[in-house]
Amino acid sequence: MVLNIYYLMVSLTALFGGDTTMRAVVPGPLLPVAGATALMPAGMMLPAISSGTRDAKLRIYMDDLGKGFDKRVQEVLPKIDGVPRRLLAIRYYMRRKSDMRTKWTWTPKQIARYKKSSEYSRSMAEVDSVKWKFNALNPGYNLTTNTEVRTLDDQIRNWNQTPSILAGATELMASCINAIADSVLYLDDPDRASLARFARFLEGCQPSQIPTVAVPGFSQHGQLRAFDFVVRSGDRIVAGTETGSIRSAWDRAGWTAKLHDAVTQGSRRFVGPLASPREPWHYTYQP
Ligand SMILES: [Zn+2]
Q1: Distance, CA 281 to ligand 1 centroid (Å)?
Q2: Residue 157 maps to a domain
Q3: What's the 152 CA to ligand 1 centre distance in angstroms?
Q4: Which of 22, 60, 90, 137 is the most buried (most CB within 10 A)?
Q5: pLDDT in tens, 193-250
Q6: CA 162 – ligand 1 centroid, Å
Q7: pTM for the full model?
Q8: How far is the CA of 132 from the centre of ligand 1 (A)?
Q9: Ligand 1 midpoint to CA 146 (Å)
Q10: In 43-146, beta strands by DSSP E
Q11: Does the structure show a pLDDT above 50 at 4?
């Protein structure tokens, strides 16, 4: 994408005439959108559509798609900051529709019920066994982990504050705005075909920046089966859960391998570490 160049976006309908709904030209800066020039036949005078109008069209499509989601998702969406992050969330919710029943973050009631179960006691015993093994293999260091659920509010906060989410979301929004500028394929007032087309487009779009946190509601920590292990020496964190520390604190310092040794020697109930996004500290308990 060439920055500092403002591309004019135009709908095909507007380009080829016959458009009775063409909007007024509103002066103001336009977002640069990669690939937008491909829509423009050479030498043609182009009517401009303001960035505000394009954003509004995208929001109409997002709102219409949102209506098809489970109520729990519909309650989360307004709590996500800004259109780009919400759009990225919608993309992930579309891909996880079939997981709503089994993978959604537990309610306080479900957590309380699980904590009384024998499966919970067994999982805690397995976590202790891994810790004991790690401490025995690595004198002077100790392994800790949070054994509480990551609440839905915490997951929403993470989604709203994590830089990788905004990076991927901004990229996704540029692609979507570029696509729906075509008012033949994507009607300004979306019908069923336009909406289905947009859903397919959005679902197929893969931003180059992979999110480093799960879309709210689908963190593996939302059910008590995922554990992030932290290496400490006394009060000091030697290897924690920061994405930026993976290479130095985990891989080069050897803790990625040492944790894996302790997990596999201390228990047969864990799989991991998480591969995408890569988290050498994250293991999942398999009942
Ligand atoms: Zn984790």
Answers
A1: 7
A2: no
A3: 14
A4: 90
A5: 999 999 999 999 999 988 889 999 999 899 989 999 999 999 999 999 998 999 999 9
A6: 14
A7: 0.74
A8: 20
A9: 10
A10: 142-145
A11: no
Same domain, 20 and 37: yes
Q: How far is the CA of 158 from the centre of ligand 1 (A)?
A: 12
User: For residue 81, is it within any domain?
Assistant: yes
143 with 233, same domain: the answer is yes
How many domains, in total, are found in the chain? 2
CA of 226 relative to ligand 1 center, distance in Å = 6
Rounded distance from Cα 105 to ligand 1 centre (Å): 14
In this structure, the answer to whether residues 270 and 136 fall within a common structural domain is yes
**For the CA atoms of the chain, what is the radius of gyration?**
24
- Would you say residue 5 lies in a domain? no
The CA-based angle 121-219-248, given to 5 degrees, is 95
Within this chain, do residues 263 and 230 fall inside the same structural domain, yes or no?
A: yes
Q: 84 is in which domain, residue-wise?
A: 12-101+163-204
Residues 191, 261 share a domain: no
Question: Which of these, 209, 216, 203, lies nearest to 176 by C-alpha position?
Answer: 203
Report the separation in Å between the CA atom of 8 and the middle of ligand 1, taken as the mean of its atom positions: 43
Task: State the virtual CA torsion across 184, 190, 192, 195 in degrees, nearest 10.
Answer: 90
Helix count and strand count (H, E) for the chain = 11, 5
